[in-house]
C-alpha cells in the first residue's frame, strides 16, 4: 500500500513540476524540491526505512586451553605450536585472533598462564559475543564448569572446530548429588532423590544404585548422561540415622571414590506421649480430648480427670493442665510436675473460669500482676508468632475465630514470648516460656473449646483447635530447638571445585519453614549469595571454587523484613586442583561440541593444513532500521535542503 502511494505521489509531483523538468536550468531545483518532499513524506507518514544485507565475517577465534590439566599432560607447548599452525593455515581472506581460556576468556596466547578450573561453556559464550567467522578450540576437553558447553554451541550458529590434546580418557560413573531431608518422623515415608552422572561409556550400561536398604537397576547412558532416581525409605526407630548411597563400580572405571555418598537424617519419634490433666472438668475437656484422640502423632496417656486433689502424674513428654486449681495439699504433685518440665518435658496450660494458679504455675508462667477479666478479647498475633507458624497461610485464620469472653492474664515479666495479645488492652492471650530444659505455653483466654466448634466450618478441614494442639504439642515435645542448619555437601574441596550449600529450616514445632528469604555471606565474596527454595524447608545455593585455605559462610534467614536468625558453616579447600582429578582426552564431550558446531574433531597429532582449508564461516545478517521521527539529523537535513532551495531560487530571481 505504501509503495502504491509513493508511486502516485511521484507521478503527481512530476505533473505539478513538469515545467521545471523541461527547463534544464531548473532541473537542479526540481531535484532539491523532490528530496525535500520525500523527506517530508517519510516524516509525516511515519514510514520506516529498512535495509537488509549480509556480512561475511573474516575473523577466526582460536581458543587455547591454559588449564592445569593441559599442563599436567605436557600439552602447553604443543597447543602453542598448533595455534601457530592454525593461524598460518586458515583459508585465504580469514584472519586469526587468539584467546586463552580457563575459568574465563582472555585475549592473547598467554603461554605462561595456568587456571585451576576449566569452564568451557562460559569461555565459548564470551567468544561468541565477538561474532567470529568460526571458532577453533584447542583443548583436552577437561570441563568442570556448571553448565554444559553443548547447548551454548548449538544456540550460536557459529561453526566450531575442535583440536584435541592428550591420550583418550576412560569412562566413569559417580553419585553427583543426593537430596535428603534433614529430619523425618519414624515410620513415615522419606523421599530421597539420587542424581547419577555417567561419562565416557560407549553404549548404555545397566548399573545397580542403592540407597539405604533399597536398590534399583538403572541404565547409565552413553557419552555424558545424568539421571535422577527416586527412593522411598522408612525409618522405624527415632535417632540420627546414616544413609549410604552406593553406585555399582564397573571394571575399568577411572575412579571408584565418587561412587559412594553418605549423609545423616534425624528421625524423630512417630508419636508424642501426652497427658491430659484437670481437677475441674468442664466443656473444654470433651473438645480437647476429642482432638487429641484424632491426632495420629499423639500417644494419649490415661486421662487424669476428676474433681479433688491430684495424686497421679503419668509418664509423658507433654502435659496439658486444663483449668487447673492449684491446692496447697497438692504441693508435692505440683513439685513433681515442675521437675518434669525443668528436665525437658513440655507443659500446655489452659485457663478457664475456675483457673487458680498457685506457687508452681506462677513460677513457671512468665506473668505478674495477675487478674481475671470478663468481656470480649480479640486475639491479635505478634511477630513472635512466626516461630511456630500457627497463624500463617495453611494454619489458623484469626478472622474465623470468635473473641474470648474471659482471660486470666497479667504483665509479661520479660522472659516470656507473647504469640497472641488482646487487641483491646494488649494483655497476653498466648505466651510461651523456656523452663530450663523444658518449654511452657500458657493460653490465658477462654473458653478455648470454641476454637473447635465453629458454625458452618467444613467437615474435611482441621479445626483451629486441632491445628493449635497439633503444632503446640510438637513444639513442646521437640528436644532439638535448632531452627536452621547450614551445611556444605562436603567438609573439604579441591581447588576450583564448586561448593554447594544446603540450609534446612524448620519451625519450633518441627514443621517445615517455607517462604523464607535466605542470603549467604561468603568470607571471600563481597556480594550476598541468595539461596533458592526447593520446598519442604530446604534451601540451596552453589558457588564457584575458592582459593585454598579455610573458609566460612553465614546464612541470614529472614521472613519479610524480620531477621529470624543467622547460622554458620565452615569448610576447607586443599591446594590440589580439581583439574588434576581426571586427565586425558575427553573425546565424548569434544565430539558433541564439534557436532553441535557442525565442525570436525581431530587430534593435535593428526591435524593437517588440508583440514584447515575446510573451515566454513558464519554469514551474519545485518539490518539497518531508520525511523525519521526520532532521528535529529533527519530534521537538520530537511532544513538544510529546504534552505538551499530557497537560496538558489533567489539567486535565479524566482522569488
TrEMBL record:
Keywords: Membrane, Transmembrane, Transmembrane helix. InterPro entries: Class_I_gatase-like, vWFA_dom_sf. The keyword Transmembrane helix applies. CDD domains: vWFA (cd00198). The chain crosses the membrane at residues 28-49, 630-648. This is VWA domain-containing protein.
